[in-house]
Description:
The structure holds two protein chains of two kinds. Chain A is α+β, with helices and mostly antiparallel strands. Chain A contains ten helices and 15 strands. Chain A has two domains: about 1-65, no CATH class; about 75-295, Alpha-Beta Plaits, CATH 3.30.70.20. Chain A has a five-stranded mixed sheet. In chain A, strand 6 and strand 7 (about 135) form a beta hairpin. Chain B has 19 helices and no strands. Chain B is globular. The interface between A and B is large, with 46 and 47 residues. Chain B: Belongs to the NrfD family.
Amino acid sequence: MNQENNSRREFLISGLLAAGVVAGCTPNKNTFEAAAGEDVVASGKKVKLLSVDGEIIEVDEAFLKPVPHMPPVSNTEARIGIPGKKFVMVIDLSRCKNLKKCQSACNHAHELNPGQNWIKVDPMQAGEYTAPYWEPTTCMHCDEPPCVKVCPVDATFKRQDGIVLIDSDRCIGCRFCMAACPYSTRVFNWDQPMLPAAVASQPYSAETSIPQKKGTVGKCDFCADMTREGMLPHCVSACPNGVFAFGDMNEDTVTNGAETFRFSELIRDKAGYRLMEDLGTKPSVYYLPPVNRNFPFQSGLENDKTQNS
Amino acid sequence: MENVIIKDKPIKDTLPKDINSAAGDKIINDLLPQKFGKAGKIWVGILVAICLVGMFAYYRQLRYGLVVTNMRDYVSWGIYISNFVFFVAISLVGSLITAIFRLLGVKWGAPLTRIAEMIAVAGIIFASLIIIVDMGSPERFYYLFLYGRIQSPIIWDVIVITTYFFISVLLLYYPLLPDIKILLHHKERSSQKLNKFYSFIGSFWKGSHKQNLLSNKAINVLCITIIPVAFTIHTVTSWLFATTYRPGWDSTNFGAYFIAGAFLVGAGAVVVAMYVFRKAYHLEKYITDSHFDKMGKIVVLLSLVYLYFNVNEFLTPFFKMKESERGYLNDMFTGSFAPVFWFAILTGMILPIIILLFKKGRRPLPMFIVGVMVVVGAWFKRYLIVTPTLLHPFLPMHDVPEAYRHYFPSWEEWAITMGSLAGTLLVITILARIFPIIPIQETLNEHHETAE
Lengths: 309, 452
């Protein structure tokens, strides 16, 4: 039990910290699990960190331990996923004002070319007199993924931790998955992606989805490389309004970086739902309805114009 | 050396008695393949030129990627896929004319079997080629065999199309064997190279009783197997669409709807080919007005069946006007696709039905025009099956460049598509140049029977 708590705390906090630093700290206590047993002398230099509760805490620099950069996982490992996890995302529509910070962070992190957006923010209005709202869409990482069903060569696959990824070294570019996906989430590399030489020459990793290749399909990967390191996907940490919350269904916890929720309570209390439930695709992305909004719909219009022109 | 074997005893024993009679000679003389005349050479030249332009366009596509097409993330399948469906459809006629007619004992269809098989083989070859053209990474084509997953309808298609290809080739080949013997008997009619080719593929055929029995048995087995395989290739092709959730594709009607359309376009293609071959090679005695009349009746029947499936496919969603299908249906009936839609319905079904109901409409020339209408209408119908649906996804087309929200094929797409169509015609033309368009031996046998 204790073990489980620790690992959850690690996961949550590490999302708040800058990359390269891991913590397992508890406020007001200078003991680190990571450093336990080692003789660490306080340096006297303090670093400010944000705690799980949203408080700013000060920690001695000496107690921070750099995370060794994990070697990229093999294709076989990338296809299996992280044991014991079931990743889930909650998107709170009442907080979105179409800032598109999620999109630009995602595009930057995955080296996407102009015109390719793995995250789209759609203006939605169900009926003539119903209220419009902004709806960010990622890959839904369905539990019954139509794209995986139709892929003829096992290039796109579902992992045991729920993430749906693409092996660009396998993809033949038939685009059946794009036709099959009801959420239109997949994008195709119609031409040679413009990438820095250092990126383009890397071997492809299904977890980072880098580098994208001509004639293959790409899509949101839930930042599988980040989650493997216990960090939050780029869209989650980039959103200043806390629209996205990400976590592990098995631990029943999701966080947007600043706030942490019990997943089941959040979905129950705010009447969470999934898109196109009637199709039976069983998405891993949940939505909270746009009620008690933080921003009026109109506040997002200006941004929409500049981004889509 | 092979010549010696061929000219050996069996020939005189097994050929019908009248092979040397004047009538028999005339039949053979009429039906042996003929060298291209001036018109033929121009025709082949034009086809080759179109193919070359298509190949250049494909070279550009290989070099720069599918970006040279106007397909984008929403319309991720364009005219390549509609063309693929068209080719699969047209190739189904082989099974109709050859197998169904044979098994039903329809005797008058005999002179048309080879034309139908040639269209089938050419169609299925280009169906496979065009699907490779549509792939983003064609160099990985063999992954389909290396990593194929049986749950994907594409793999089903790969399996059945390969099967259909081999059955079609065999159905073209086995009935050819007696004719190749006749060809080898008339060596003076062909070049040395061609004669070598004939003896390579058919010199073992002696026409003995045993061989004939074996061949008949094989053809019967192929005729029986090709029917389910033909139904499967087009049903599976329809499932490439029907297994998705999209409005306009999410239909249980699709398999039957596709097969009905396939038989129609195939029959239309046979009518066109009948007319052209009859004119070009003066085959009026063998492809008679009565053949056109009978094919006309078949085309009417097939048009009516296809029209029925179209009503089925469009009327019920139109009646309901579900929100998810509204945009797509409006686009088809009155929107930007309406001209193409009504053109395809009118020229592909309604006008042929009206024209062919009249006896005068079933004469060769009107039949030819109707055949062209059916084929052209069918091609556009396939376009309508693919594109409009993709322009009406469930979620709005947003956060994409403006160009992603429309689709009109680029010149490369047109060039490749036209190239593939020209290639099909070229294959048919070459097959007709090498092999007798009308089975000679069968015609001789029939002549023999009627003479008796």
